[in-house]
Amino acid sequence: MLPLQEEMMEDVKAFYSTIGASGIPKRYTHFMDEAQFEYCNWLAAQCGCSGYEKWREQMFRACNKNRRVRPETYRDEWDDHDLVLQTHQEFTKYTSTTVNDKYRSESFTVQR
Predict the structure, then answer these.
(1) Do 26 and 19 contact (CB within 8 A), yes or no?
(2) Predicted structure pTM score
């Protein structure tokens, strides 16, 4: 259930006051950077869902760091192979081994 509209408006006013006091222009309202994960996890909890996995946050931080260090080549050069392995292991939890084996099989044929 959402809070009352008046409460939500007060939260918005408080938020704009906070970013204004920090010297952040209003045009950066949706630039959450480090607060993004806290917000998304809070939002997920409000809906009764689980938040982000830790590896997703780590991957985000590694990408941001790489982008700052190598602004021209960050898409081509990575130092996060351990995170890629962790991601792969996480994704295998959600894929069916039977389906994967079927698609890898040389004898797989499309039925029409």
Answers:
(1) yes
(2) 0.54
